[in-house]
Every structure is written in structure tokens, then in C-alpha cells.
């Protein structure tokens, strides 16, 4: 059926164009022979094609444009006729004898255009006559196109101030009167289209009306171009009459489009000075009109106007723009009780943007807007609609974008209250936006109160909100979110130790409720922030004033012990062990032996009870040995205990090569360069000999299991340790021991049962080259190396 209709329409259009072209041909012939009577006859027949009711507006427009082109040629002919002495008044009378009213009015408008140009009569009289005559066509589509033609031919002939057609003192009023009258009649025709035809074709009619809206809106554009309209005339006459027409037509499509037109075509300055009148019309519009979009566009234009120059800001204060807009939004929401929540949020979002542009110093205004939004949201529960939550994110992001400072946003008491209406996912998005703003602007958040307020805002990332299921979260997204929280924790700083300690306690309170998946991300930055404070306080054992409340390293270490313990309970033993060792090192630098010993104890307990994976054990034991080697705070007894533990665990690793490497690493625990009390050559030698025995056992096991002794890498590594302690002056490491070890490696490499290993060969060759290099270098060290035969 639809296809048939379209085909029929195409046929009718083709027939219309054919008829039009045929009559245009005869008209041209008459024009060429200066035959006025035939020219009028064929032009009237050509224009009769526009009387059709069968075409849709879109197709009718095609036909109209062809007729329009021909009428321009006819107009030029009429101009020539008047030059040749033909009376324009007679011509104006003559065209009115055309048989049908539609061709007659098109010809009248065409001649009227020439009549005005001739200046034989005042422009206002001719225009008034034409606009009145056009009432003769009441068919919506035909009438709209006719009046559009009138507007087109008259736009450069209005009796405006400064125009060549300017009339008496009230000339601008006459121009306005003509345009307004044409606009009013066109709007009536446009609205009437809605009520013609069956109800089932409502959508089709609305689409057709949408195609024709620019014909009506063009009048407002012409109106805005009239030079004679000053602010007083706009305020007293033009705007009230346009708004009266808009409100009275009671048509949803027309009201939405025309209100938008008014906002777009007239100057911002006029809008500002007539806010009362303009805003007064909004609550009177039909309940189905999308007021939120139009009102938002108005506020956007005014925001841009305010941003364009600082000189215009006093005007905004003078007219109390904020109060009027705020009041208007309240009335619009009241007048439309069924307005969806998205509309409400959009309106307040636009008002907040306006406020931040016009009154950036008035935080109370911004808070007032957020408060009004909270009031409308109350009782709605969490918002589920995607568009509404996005709009709230836009609303809450506006202060961040304007002030580039979360600290200012934290002063808005209603800011966190709006956040509460977001669902869990959007809450996370907003929290991420807040953190990104802090990162981008390097905002300093330096008091515990502000940290408390900030962490309340971003709690969606810090802990599970009501009903949130963590298992459903994408792993990569989760990591990214938690890493951003970790970066935020690192940014929090205050130079005052007391306040910094309060900040650390505040952060700790918030993050400890984050659950086992979050703690491995958030505890380490908190620990390192605390250690930074410890370094700041280094050397301060007790407060000189004796106040118990003061922050001391000991107090921070107590907090750290409890904090790291939460990781071992998750469990995340490897991470907890690393953090215990970091804390032990900091305690060492503060000369707090009992504290350092306690951290080492906790690390060993974790190693014994929690770390069972062999790879994790290797990493852990090397970390323990490395940290213990750097400790200078321990007395003999404590150091012996810890060293004994470390060497014991080293020898108990699962694989022999791992045992060997850990045991020879322990040799460094008995010989520390910058500590004279830790230079026990015998125990170093014991460790190295034990490592040799383990290396030997590893070869035998390999031989028994695989039939080859395997690589000699371990022996070369031990040889390098011998050389290290030999250089450091350990009396127990002598030339004979090194010589025998070189020979051992050489023998092993030449053995039939050893596995070829190019890396081990290169390592050994490099070691021998080093010995030769030291010999050639000479000096005291060269003399020591001299007896060694490489």
C-alpha cells in the first residue's frame, strides 16, 4: 500500500512538473515577444499546478521551487515593462483578474515586489494589502508555501530604519507588524495540519509538519534582522506578541520549535533583559513539550554570553538572572508533574553550569542548585535509568571542571547527597572522575577533615556498597580502579606530622573495610606514606614536651604493625612479608631495635606458616637475607637469633641449587663492610663450605637421576663469592682455597659425565679473566692475586 502511494505521488509530481514546464515554455515565448496578456495567461496556468492537494510537503516543495524560479523571470519582465512605460498600478490591477485565487495571489505578490521597488506607493501599504489578501488561501500546505513566497520576495523591501523603503516615524513598527502578521497566519496554518486527516496517520502528519517548520521559523529570523527593533520595542511589543501566539496555539510541536527559534535568533542581551517575560511562558506550554531541552539551551546561551566578556557580568547581577532561572525551573517542574527524572536533572545540570559561569564566586548558589536537585530526587531511591545517571555524573562533574579543585567541591554540602542516588556502577564512574580531577590538577588535600569528606565521596571504589557483587566486576577494570585509589593515597600530604598522622588514620579507617580483593592494592601505599612520615620524624624518640598525644615513630610503627597484619589475614603473605621487611628497615634507621626485631619476627612467622610455594619461598628468603644484611640496630644476641633462623631456612629449601644459592647468600650476614662488629670470617667460610657441599650433593643427585653431573654453574658462583671475601680481606679465605676451587671447576668441566653448558663456560672464563686483570693492574690487590694460578 505504501509503495503504491509513493509511486502514485511520483506520477502526480511528474505530471505537475510536465504541466508547469509546458506552460512555462509558452510563458517564455510570450515574454520574448513582449506579449503581456499571454504572459499573464500562461503564468496563471503554470501556477495552477500548485493547486494540487495530492503531494506530500516534500514533493510539493520540489514543484514550488520550479515555479519560484519561473516567477523570478516573470518579475524581471514586470520590471522591464514598467521601465517601458507600463503603469505598475495598472499591472497590479491586471493580475487580479486571474481566474483562480492561488495563481492570482502568487502573481500579485510578484507584481507587489516590483510595485514596492517603484516607490509609487508606501511599502507598508502594499505589504499590508498583500498579507491581508493571502488570507484567501486556507489550505495548510498551499497557504504556507504562498506566505513563504511573500516573505521571500518582501524580506529586502521592508520599511525598516536605514532601508531605502523607510517610511514615517513609525516605520519599524510597520515592518514588524507585517512580519508578525505573516508569522501568525503561517503558524495557524502549520498547526491546522495536525488536525486534518485520520488519527492513524498522526505520525505521518507530524513528520510532514517537521519538514515544513523552517518556513514558519524563517519569519522570526527576518524579525531578528530588523534594524529598527531596539530593546524597548522587543520587550514591549515583539516578544509578548510572539509568545502570545506560541502559548495560544496549544500545539506541542509548534511550541517546542518556536521557543527554540526565539532563543536561537534573538540576541543574548535581549534574552537577559526580558528573562521575566520569556520564562513566564514556559509553565504555560503544553505538558508534553520538551521544556528541559529548550530551557537548557537558553541557559547554555546565557552561560556562553557571560563567558564571552567580563563586562556583561554586572547585567546578570542587575537582573538577578540566577534567582529568576531557579524560580522558573521550579515552576516548570511543578506545572509538569509527569516530567521524567531525567528532565529534572538536565534542568538543574544546565542551571549549575550557568551558575558556575556567571557566579563562580557564589558557592552558595551552586549548593542551592544541588540542594534543589536532592529535594526532587528524594524518595526515588537509587537511579537505574542510564541517561539519568549519566546526567548526574555531568551535574557533579561541572564544579570539578570549573574550579579544577576537589577541595572547593568538598565545600558544597549537597554534593555528597546527590552522589547517594547513583547506582553502584555509576558511583564508581563518578569516583574515578573525582580522582582523575585530583591527579590532573595535582590538588593538595592536606587536612584529615577533607580526606574524610573525599573518601566519603569515593567510597564506591573503596568498599562494596549495598547490594554490590564484587565477583561480577571485570578484573582489568577493578585493577585500574584500585590503582587509581592507590595513587590518590600517595598524593595526600601535610608537612605537619600531627595532621599527617591524622590523615593516615583517616585513610586507614576507610580502606580496611575494603575486603580481601582491595587491601593488596590500598595497604601498600598507606604503609609507604606512613614510612615517609617516619623518615620525617627520624631520630625523634619521645616528644620533648612530654605530650602523650604527639606523633612519634614508635606510635606510627604500632599502627603499621596492625595494618600489615590485615594482609596476612586475607591472606596475602608474600606482600605482607615484604611490607614487614620495609618497616623493619625504617625501624632500623630510627634505632628502634625492639620494633625492628618484632617486624622480623612477624616476617619469619609468615614464612613458616603461610608461604608454602617453593618459588615464593626462594624470593622471600633472599628478601629476608638482603634486609637483615643492611640492619645495624641489632645487638649480638638478636642478630645471632635472626641470622641463625635465616641460614636454617636457606638450607631447607626444596631444590638443592636453590639451597646452595640461599646458603652462600647467608655468608654476607657474617661480614658487613661498614660494621666492624659484624666481620666473622670463620662463619663466612662455614657458609661457603656448606654451599660447596650442597652443590656437590646436587651434582651427585643429578648423576644418579640423569646419568650426568649437570652444570658447574653453582661452583663458579661459589668461586665468585670466595673472590669477593678474599678482596674484602677475610683472613679465612686464602689463596689455597681459591686455587683448589679453580681446579675443582676445571676438573668438573673436563669430566665426561658433566653436561656441556656454554653459559657456565663463559661465566668461568670471565671469572679467570678478572683474576688476570687484577694481577696486571698491580697495587696491593694485584699482589694478593699474584699467587693464584688461573
From TrEMBL:
<keyword id="KW-0472">Membrane</keyword>
<keyword id="KW-0967">Endosome</keyword>
<keyword id="KW-0813">Transport</keyword>
<dbReference type="GO" id="GO:0030906">
    <property type="term" value="C:retromer, cargo-selective complex"/>
</dbReference>
<dbReference type="GO" id="GO:0005794">
    <property type="term" value="C:Golgi apparatus"/>
</dbReference>
<protein>
    <recommendedName>
        <fullName>Vacuolar protein sorting-associated protein 35</fullName>
    </recommendedName>
</protein>
<keyword id="KW-0333">Golgi apparatus</keyword>
<dbReference type="GO" id="GO:0005770">
    <property type="term" value="C:late endosome"/>
</dbReference>
<dbReference type="InterPro" id="IPR016024">
    <property type="entry name" value="ARM-type_fold"/>
</dbReference>
<comment type="similarity">
    <text>Belongs to the VPS35 family.</text>
</comment>
<dbReference type="Pfam" id="PF03635">
    <property type="entry name" value="Vps35"/>
</dbReference>
<dbReference type="GO" id="GO:0010008">
    <property type="term" value="C:endosome membrane"/>
</dbReference>
<keyword id="KW-0653">Protein transport</keyword>
<comment type="function">
    <text>Plays a role in vesicular protein sorting.</text>
</comment>
<dbReference type="GO" id="GO:0005829">
    <property type="term" value="C:cytosol"/>
</dbReference>
<keyword id="KW-0963">Cytoplasm</keyword>
<dbReference type="GO" id="GO:0006886">
    <property type="term" value="P:intracellular protein transport"/>
</dbReference>
<dbReference type="GO" id="GO:0042147">
    <property type="term" value="P:retrograde transport, endosome to Golgi"/>
</dbReference>
<dbReference type="InterPro" id="IPR005378">
    <property type="entry name" value="Vps35"/>
</dbReference>
<dbReference type="InterPro" id="IPR042491">
    <property type="entry name" value="Vps35_C"/>
</dbReference>
Amino acid at each position: 500500500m505504501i509503495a503504491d502511494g509513493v509511486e502514485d505521488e511520483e506520477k502526480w509530481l511528474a505530471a505537475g512538473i510536465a504541466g508547469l514546464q509546458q506552460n512555462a515554455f509558452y510563458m517564455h515565448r510570450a515574454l520574448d515577444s513582449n506579449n503581456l496578456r499571454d504572459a499573464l495567461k500562461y503564468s496563471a496556468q503554470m501556477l495552477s499546478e500548485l493547486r494540487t492537494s495530492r503531494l506530500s510537503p516534500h514533493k510539493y516543495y520540489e514543484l514550488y521551487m520550479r515555479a519560484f524560479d519561473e516567477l523570478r523571470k516573470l518579475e524581471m519582465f514586470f520590471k522591464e515593462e514598467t521601465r517601458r512605460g507600463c503603469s505598475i498600478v495598472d499591472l497590479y490591477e491586471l493580475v487580479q483578474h486571474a481566474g483562480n485565487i492561488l495563481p492570482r495571489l502568487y502573481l500579485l505578490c510578484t507584481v507587489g515586489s516590483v510595485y514596492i521597488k517603484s516607490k509609487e506607493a508606501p511599502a507598508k501599504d502594499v505589504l499590508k494589502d498583500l498579507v491581508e489578501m493571502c488570507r484567501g488561501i486556507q489550505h495548510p500546505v498551499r497557504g504556507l508555501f504562498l506566505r513563504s513566497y511573500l516573505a521571500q520576495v518582501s524580506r529586502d523591501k521592508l520599511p525598516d530604519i536605514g532601508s531605502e523603503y523607510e517610511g514615517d516615524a513609525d516605520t519599524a513598527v510597520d515592518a514588524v507588524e507585517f512580519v508578525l502578521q505573516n508569522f501568525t497566519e503561517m503558524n495557524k496554518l502549520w498547526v491546522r495540519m495536525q488536525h486534518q486527516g485520520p488519527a492513524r496517520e498522526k505520525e505521518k502528519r507530524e513528520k510532514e509538519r517537521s519538514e515544513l517548520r523552517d518556513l514558519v521559523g524563517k519569519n522570526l529570523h527576518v524579525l531578528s534582522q530588523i534594524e529598527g527593533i531596539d530593546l524597548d520595542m522587543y520587550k514591549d511589543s515583539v516578544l509578548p506578541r510572539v509568545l502570545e501566539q506560541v502559548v495560544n496555539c496549544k500545539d506541542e510541536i509548534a511550541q517546542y520549535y518556536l521557543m527554540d527559534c526565539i532563543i536561537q535568533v534573538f540576541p543574548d542581551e535581549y534574552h537577559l533583559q526580558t528573562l521575566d517575560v520569556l520564562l513566564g511562558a514556559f509553565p504555560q506550554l503544553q505538558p508534553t513539550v520538551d521544556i528541559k531541552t529548550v530551557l537548557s539551551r537558553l541557559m547554555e546561551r546565557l552561560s556562553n554570553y557571560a563567558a564571552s566578556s567580563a563586562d556583561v557580568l554586572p547585567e546578570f547581577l542587575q537582573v538577578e538572572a540566577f534567582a529568576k532561572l531557579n524560580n522558573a525551573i521550579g515552576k516548570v517542574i511543578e506545572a509538569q508533574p509527569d516530567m521524567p527524572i531525567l528532565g529534572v536533572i538536565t534542568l538543574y545540570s544546565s542551571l549549575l553550569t550557568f551558575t558556575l559561569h556567571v557566579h563562580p564566586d557564589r558557592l552558595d548558589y551552586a549548593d542551592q542548585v544541588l540542594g534543589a536537585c536532592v529535594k526532587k530526587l528524594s524518595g526515588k531511591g537509587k537511579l537505574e535509568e542510564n541517561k539519568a545517571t549519566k546526567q548526574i555524573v555531568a551535574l557533579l562533574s561541572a564544579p570539578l571542571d570549573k574550579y579544577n579543585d576537589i577541595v572547593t567541591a568538598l565545600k558544597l554540602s549537597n554534593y555528597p547527597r546527590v552522589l547517594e542516588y547513583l547506582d553502584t556502577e555509576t558511583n564508581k564512574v563518578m569516583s574515578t572522575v573525582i580522582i582523575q580531577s585530583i591527579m590532573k590538577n595535582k590538588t593538595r588535600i592536606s587536612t584529615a577533615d577533607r580526606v574524610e569528606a573525599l573518601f566519603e565521596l569515593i567510597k564506591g571504589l573503596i568498599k562494596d556498597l549495598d547490594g554490590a557483587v564484587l565477583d561480577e566486576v571485570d578484573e582489568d577494570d577493578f585493577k585500574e580502579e584500585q590503582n587509581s585509589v592507590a595513587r590518590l593515597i600517595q598524593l595526600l600530604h601535610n608537612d605537619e606530622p600531627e595532621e599527617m598522622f591524622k590523615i593516615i588514620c583517616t585513610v586507614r579507617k576507610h580502606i580496611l573495610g575494603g575486603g580481601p580483593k582491595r587491601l593488596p592494592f590500598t595497604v601498600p601505599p598507606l604503609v609507604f606514606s606512613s614510612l615517609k612520615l617516619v623518615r620525617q620524624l627520624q631520630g625523634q624518640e619521645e616528644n620533648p614536651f612530654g605530650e602523650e598525644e604527639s606523633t612519634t615513630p614508635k606510635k606510627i610503627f604500632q599502627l603499621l604493625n596492625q595494618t600489615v597484619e590485615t594482609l596476612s589475614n586475607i591472606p596475602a603473605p608474600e606482600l605482607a612479608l615484604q611490607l614487614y621487611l620495609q618497616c623493619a628497615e625504617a625501624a632500623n634507621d630510627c634505632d628502634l631495635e625492639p620494633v625492628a626485631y618484632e617486624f622480623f619476627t612477624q616476617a619469619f612467622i609468615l614464612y613458616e606458616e603461610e608461604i608454602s610455594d617453593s618459588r615464593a619461598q626462594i624470593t622471600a628468603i633472599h628478601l629476608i637475607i638482603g634486609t637483615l644484611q643492611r640492619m645495624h640496630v641489632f645487638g649480638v644476641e638478636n642478630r645471632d637469633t635472626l641470622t641463625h633462623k635465616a641460614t636454617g631456612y636457606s638450607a631447607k629449601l626444596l631444590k638443592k641449587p636453590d639451597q646452595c644459592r640461599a646458603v652462600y647468600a647467608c655468608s654476607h650476614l657474617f661480614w658487613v663492610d661498614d660494621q666492624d662488629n659484624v666481620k666473622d670470617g670463620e662463619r663466612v667460610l662455614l657458609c661457603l663450605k656448606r654451599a660447596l657441599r650442597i652443590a656437590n650433593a646436587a651434582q651427585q643427585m643429578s648423576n644418579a637421576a640423569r646419568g650426568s653431573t649437570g652444570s658447574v654453574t653453582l661452583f663458579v658462583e661459589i668461586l665468585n663469592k670466595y673472590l669477593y671475601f678474599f678482596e674484602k680481606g677475610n683472613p679465612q679465605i686464602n689463596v689455597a682455597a681459591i686455587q683448589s676451587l679453580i681446579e675443582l671447576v676445571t676438573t668438573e668441566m673436563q669430566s665426561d659425565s658433566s653436561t656441556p653448558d656454554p653459559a657456565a663456560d663463559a661465566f668461568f672464563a670471565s671469572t679467570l679473566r678478572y683474576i688476570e686483570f687484577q694481577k696486571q693492574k698491580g697495587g696491593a690487590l694485584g699482589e694478593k692475586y699474584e699467587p693464584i694460578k688461573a
